[in-house]
Amino acid sequence: MKSNGTAALFDEAAYETTFEATVIDSRQDLVAFDRTLFYPAGGGQPGDTGFITYADGSRARVVETRRDETDRLLIWHRLDGDVESLPTGKIAINGAVDWGVRYPNMRMHTCLHLLCSLIDAPVTGCSMGQGKGRLDFDLPEMTMSKDEIADSLNAMIARQINVETRLMQPDQYDVALELVRNRYALPPRSAQFVKMIEVRGVDIQPCGGTHVRSTLEIGKIVCEKIDKKGRQNRRIVLRLID
Ligand SMILES: [Zn+2]
Questions:
Q1: How far is CA 53 from CA 78, 129, 142, in A?
Q2: CA–centroid distance, residue 177 to ligand 1 (Å)
Q3: How many Å lie between the centroid of ligand 1 and the Cα of residue 215?
Q4: Does 18 fall in a domain?
Q5: Same-domain check for residues 112 and 70
Q6: By CB neighbour count within 10 A (0-12 exposed, 13-18 middle, 19+ buried), where does 29 fall?
Q7: Residues 28 and 49 occupy one common structural domain
Q8: For a FRET experiment, which of 9, 149, 166, 205 has its CA 20 to 30 Å from that of 81?
Q9: pLDDT digit string (tens) for 171-205?
């Protein structure tokens, strides 16, 4: 089924957790709305979890959020248990994102932008969740120690640097792409706009994820390990403290 897709409310309202929406499609245990605050898995950031509440007060748990494989503007919410085929356009819901899961992901995601700025090498992989995060770099020699990485990151965090989100027109996409060293979190090309993330004076790149407004919100971090993954690859693992 061809749809107009799901309005990605999280792009402009990363700190909001509740929203109203209308069902536009459903199948088995998946449901799609005309708009959502649930972030769909992508760029190493896990898809959001939470709850939806129907007009009659019944609730369903959202266990996973992801984009449709072919229609990248359509966002599916996987519910705990099958949903009957819901009539589209009529069913209104309230959604609530699990902030206890999402906020640490926003903090770690922003911290990984800082890590990018610290290591001058292409990123080949990215993952985060449960207060941890890692980046893989195409890097034959690692010159910094775990403590040096943690100290540099904690110093940047303490500088309370603003993290700004700007929405660019799609015709500026190719210009934006030239700024990208790390193509692990590109927003979908067909979107109405391209989301640019700038950590003032530190890092700028198009990124589809959700981020905190100031580096200070990341809080203290530790560098847990630097792993050698093959001759050319170094994996750096960070953890939020608290
Ligand atoms: Zn990002």
A1: 14, 26, 49
A2: 14
A3: 13
A4: yes
A5: no
A6: middle
A7: yes
A8: 9
A9: 777 776 676 665 555 566 656 677 888 999 888 88
Residue 87 shares a structural domain with residue 117? no
Same domain, 121 and 61: no
- Tell how far the Cα of 240 is from the centroid of ligand 1, in angstroms: 17
Structure-token match 């941890």, residue found: 132
239 CA to middle of ligand 1, Å? 17
CA of 238 to the centre of ligand 1 (A): 16
Same domain, 72 and 90: yes
Q: What are phi and psi of 100, to 5 degrees?
A: -65, -20
Residue 2, in any domain of the structure? no
The whole domain housing 134 covers: 101-240
115 pLDDT above the threshold of 80: yes
Say how far apart CA 65 and CA 67 lie, in whole Å. Answer: 7
